[in-house]
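Archive entry: two folds, one per protein. Generate the first.
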Amino acid sequence: MKSGKISTLWHHPFVMVGLAIALILLGIGAAYMVWLNMLRDQERLNPSTERLLEVSDGQRIPLAQPDPTPVPTAQAIPVAATNPESTPAPSATPEVLPPERLIIPRINVDWPITPADVDHLPKFRGVGWIFGSAFPGMPGNMVLTGHAGGPYATLTRLHEVQPGDDILVQTETATHRYRVQTIYETTPDDVLAMAPSDKTIATLITCSGDWIPERQTNARRLIVVAAYEGMAREGAGG
């Protein structure tokens, strides 16, 4: 009797529908687990794979973006330590000091130097260092002027110097050597000789030519240009 009732229950419509639903849910669950495991395996093999949700209209929506690629950390590069004793000492650099004396061995010139301008040369036996011109040993044009005649004459024999002659300029601490390169004459209104230069030079200027009484000056100017050679040995120039 009991077996008949059980057989009847198995054939009841509601029981059959329930079993079918249970089997469907079980199949869906198993399929989901298989899909999830496949997704995990794929992400493990290729971490950059995006997780996408495809909706009914075909649009693919990312569920999670892949982690950004890690940036490698900088590694310190070992640098060999240098031995301070093996590092060469820098070459001596001239101090920026005003000129104090002009010495030209060939013509026995040895005069003090004082700041001056082109219109007001020293009222004593000395050489003028033109305002704004270069310091001894420094890049630029150091312009020195002196009278060729009269009671304050200092460069009377400047026309006797020759290319290659030494011109020495002393400061408080050093003697700077220049070597004569160019000698020429020009007119009094030619100021190019006093122009700045990107080279380290000295320009000596004095009067030359005939005296012009109405202008109270000479007709020409004697120009001597000398290039810097470096600091002279100790005791140079006497």
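Generate the second and append.
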Amino acid sequence: MAEASATGTDRAAILLLTLGEEPAASILRHLGAEEVQQLGAAMAKMRDVTRDQVGSVLGDLLTLVSDKASLGVEPESYLRKVLTSSFGERSAGNFLGRIFQRRGSSGLETLKWMDARAVAEMIRAEHPQIVATILAHLSASQAAQVLSQFPVEEQSNIAMRVARLEEIPETALDELDAIVDQQTQESEALRAAQVGGIRVAADIINLLDDKDGNVIEAIMTDDYELGEQIKDSLFVFENILGIDDRGIQTLMRSVQTETLSMALKAADTAIQEKIFKNMSKRAAEILKDDMAAKGPVRLSDVEEAQKEILVIVQQLAEEGQIMIGGQGEQFV
């Protein structure tokens, strides 16, 4: 079916086929008998629907939802959840990349919707400074996933370059966007923006699998003062004490009990008490019993559980659901 010849009914049928059986059924229940008959017939006739056709339909949906501010939803977030549920994270990212290319987003913006491994493969051959600038435009969570795809010996160099970034001239961003354009078919350039810096580098390193501190040590070997600044800005498990009670309660709703009990086994008493006081008395007692029942545990298991919680903390902070306090100031 050629995209240009697709009717509204055809495009609606493609959308329903894309969403899967249960979501499609939920939508059809709200339609009249004649509409259901038309859509059912169109769905039955569908053959060899291409990814480009699906991307076009989803792009139209995103534009439509974006125009409906009264819906009270964030369209990009909504569409990502729908696609992830239907196709999985990686395919959803690829679809979103195509959609945002069609909507005129910049190449750098398009990368934010792509799978981390795909981004890493795309920029792997670029100069470390270009890689650092691209990472600085991504969320800390995605940037960490991308950076983890690089050899360990390259990670410290890239992280150090992120920390040293300040304001990027518009001409430099134009050149960078042109590089991304070669891979994503995007031509619109970004304006100058404040990117990078100590905080961004620290957020990325926080989410790396760098328990031994090898990345920080390598940075300090090359630039001791810069490494110290990044180290001071790293978010560690003890910084949970800087989250207010409401934030702790929000965090607890996102953490599995098994992970929490393991993470608290080697935590300071102050952290344990902060967690306990933000739980119901019964829930706190159950958690304490669970911790006691574990007996001796491996330190590596505790560290892994704490890291899982830190990842959740970072995600909640980026979403604005909690605020992290540290080093005498607040940041999100």
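Annotation attached to the second fold: The two ends are 47 Å apart (CA to CA). Residues 111 and 119 are 7 Å apart (CA to CA).
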